[in-house]
Amino acid sequence: MLNFDIFKQKSPKQRFLLILGLIMFVFYVVLGLAFIFWEPIALRLGAIPQWGRIAIGILLIIYAFVRLLSLSRRD
Questions:
Q1: Membrane spanning segments where (predicted)?
Q2: Domains in the chain, number
Q3: Are 53 and 41 in contact (CB under 8 A)?
Q4: Within a 10 A sphere around the Cβ of 25, how many other Cβ atoms?
Q5: pTM score, two decimals?
């Protein structure tokens, strides 16, 4: 589970890096969902088959959660 004590007693630099990490988590999840569900990407990336787009989207979402877990483990 996430430890919400990471928001307490942070220096401005650590707080900025935490917020940047959370923004990047949201970015990767949205990008992964866009690869899976957004139709204009399918039209522009016509060389990639549908299973390839789904695989890329799933990998991006998994990568986002790995980054979130590593972000929560930092001191």
A1: 16-38, 50-69
A2: 1
A3: yes
A4: 18
A5: 0.75
